[in-house]
Amino acid sequence: MKKLITYQIDSFTKEKFKGNPARVVINADELTDYEMQQIARELNNSETAFLFAPDSDDCDGVIRYFTPNTEVPICGHATIAAMYAKAIEEKLDSCILRFKTKIGILPFEIIKENEDYQILMTQGNFELGDVFDSAVTQKMITALGLQKSDLDEKCPVQIASTGHSKVMIGIKSREKLNNLSPIYNDLAQLSNEINCNGYFVFTFDSDDQDVLTYGRMFAPAIGINEDPVTGNANGPLGGYLVQNNIIDYKNNTFEFNGKQGEKIDRLGVIKVKVVTEENKPKLIQIKGDAVVVFRAEIEI
Fold it and tell me: What does the record give as the active site (predicted)?
């Protein structure tokens, strides 16, 4: 019998039942791949994070991520959740932990303040794909329920990644964003053609001076029709905006707040920081709050 310590965490919010929910298994060392997949399917969050003891001297632990039907290499909100749960469980002070992921060893900073924590996640290396041709773009926007006239002309449609890629699709209207009705089967089929599972639709149409973008993210090919608040979309969005010279910034640093989850009543805020070198993204970090919904033990 294995007794697993688990947390249900809402990331990128301090309000329970908002933001992006993730389950965290604190003590996953004895679990098999099959067991982790079964647990993730049973718990049915968009991602479940599993924490392991370090397997080498160059890291403080290992972290793996599973959706209900597959393992993914990295996940922003589940990382925030996992480090928050670890900080709560172990009563940590402020520190930096280096965790081994499928995209390499990454530093995650735990920031303790007023007996609570924020988590700062350094993401993987930024990559930007080629702009899609008109035929693929048309397939994509049709599946999303968009017209060509809805697109923001200054935002090319292309894949951006910090380890788990997303298609960046800029549109003009927040009202249009919130009224999207994607055809999920068509998006999933297109994912096989373009080798990218996620579609991040965003807009600069914000009525809050502290919020640059609103977004929605769809990934039906990996069992996530809509993800509430996505670290691996908002982080790459920062790199995309920098590399395409869409925004202005000073002193080699671009910072912004992205909101997501408005339509599905799971609103959350991600703080994104991009450090540049020769006008290209060199370092991308996301920062967020979290809140414990419950702690539970599972025996298997």
Answer: 47
